[in-house]
Design a protein that fits this description.
With 388 residues, the protein is α+β, with helices and mostly antiparallel strands. Helices cover 40% and strands 21% of the residues. The termini are close together.
Length: 388
């Protein structure tokens, strides 16, 4: 992959001399959705697919961006002296936002950059192509300019830039999973404190299968920010009657005791999801440690129902994929993953049932949606790195 990118870089910018290549992974979240900004727990893992970035310093302050994924846009030019989000800036607003956030912390770039990208995360799939792009940019800046930042700080900078430069009020999970990924491990992260532990994923006799609905989502323009605001309204109401800092502080029993304080019925359902999903995530990780895949799968299924009914971030196409997955005997659990409103489902499928799973979902999806879903039997990979 890096050789193809280097060849394209040379074609665009003259040669490959002094060009460095970096990689940062996408992620899939096994359970714990929309809990990150609600002060709860998440359980994502980094993937072996992600974003590749070739870069070389310039002698001026110009920024030149090119993506092999958006070849028709050509090279998009900008400047370090005008780090503002632009409507016609397309995908470049993500790396520019990270540069802006670095500079806002006093880490000034001494020169411009030529940047060429290739991502093998399907765009709009909910596997965190934007977070992967933010993390690879931060890791590149650290390496190229000698900035003293940890990978965890790169994750926080990526989240800050997406919130404040790109206008998507996302939580920390996606950037944290990309920046802190560890092969064959998921990350059990408390988003309230950023305390985390690596949990080995030992799926003996089973695989993680991601299914792409081909329904692209755009979280900046979707109802994502509405969900966050509705959750915040519920929290404010609850804080009138119980001393909590976030919805993640409540158990299911405490929520049921105090939920009548929430004035709006929709906000109440959003809060119910946040509280119950956080507890499901804690229980799921405990089950995994006990090698109890059956319980883990049941919690995944319950997560989908809650996302569909209480948080309303699923969609008809993802519901079809999940409901068809539940019919396959070898499926341990299946749910929508990511921010929602499209994107992918994640399933744990017994080895001997993977082909049946693909065939059954393809048949049903083609009949009901008139599209052919894409399947990725995923491997869990490491965080960002320099390749060349």
């Amino acid at each position: 992959m890096e050789q193809k990118l280097l060849e394209k870089f040379a074609e665009l910018f003259g040669d490959k001399k002094d060009v460095a290549v970096y990689f940062a992974p996408g992620r899939v979240n096994l359970i714990g959705e929309h809990t990150d900004y609600n002060g709860g727990h998440v359980f994502p893992c980094a993937l072996t697919i992600g974003t590749y970035m070739a870069v070389r310093k310039r002698s001026d302050r110009k920024l030149c961006f090119y993506s092999m994924n958006f070849d028709s846009l050509g090279v998009i030019e900008d400047s370090l002296d005008d780090l503002t989000p632009k409507a016609d800036g397309e995908w470049t607003n993500y790396p520019k936002g990270v540069i802006w956030a670095f500079e806002g912390r006093g880490m000034k770039l001494s020169c411009g950059l030529d940047i060429a990208l290739y991502g093998n995360i399907p765009n709009g799939s909910g596997l965190s192509s934007s977070a992967s792009l933010e993390v690879v940019t931060g890791y590149m800046l650290k390496d190229q300019f000698g900035f003293k930042v940890t990978n965890q700080e790169i994750a926080l900078i990526g989240q800050y830039s997406e919130n404040n430069f790109n206008g998507c009020n996302c939580g920390i999970m996606d950037q944290f999973a990309s920046a802190m990924g560890k092969a064959d491990n998921a990350i059990f992260l408390d988003c309230n404190t950023l305390d985390f532990e690596y949990a080995p994923i030992k799926l003996e006799g089973a695989k993680i299968v991601v299914t792409n609905s081909l329904v692209k989502h755009s979280l900046v323009t979707s109802a994502y920010n509405d969900r966050r605001n509705e959750s915040a309204a519920a929290l404010a109401d609850l804080q009138q009657v119980v001393g909590i800092n976030s919805l993640g502080d409540l158990t299911e029993e405490e929520f049921e005791k105090y939920k009548s304080a929430i004035k709006d019925e929709v906000s109440c359902r959003r809060a119910k999801h946040a509280v119950y999903e956080n507890q499901r995530t804690i229980k799921a990780v405990a089950a995994l440690k006990e090698n109890d895949l059956e319980t883990f799968g049941k919690l995944m299924n319950a997560s989908h129902v809650s996302l569909r009914d209480d948080y309303e971030t699923s969609c008809e196409e993802c519901d079809i994929l999940v409901e068809e997955a539940w019919k396959v005997a070898g499926v341990i659990g299946s749910r929508i993953t990511g921010g929602g409103f499209g994107g992918c489902t994640v399933s744990i499928v017994k080895d001997e049932a993977v082909e049946e799973f693909k065939a059954a979902l393809t048949k049903a999806y083609e009949e009901k949606v008139h599209k052919t879903p894409e399947f990725y039997v995923v491997s869990i990979g490491n965080g960002p790195s320099r390749l060349v």
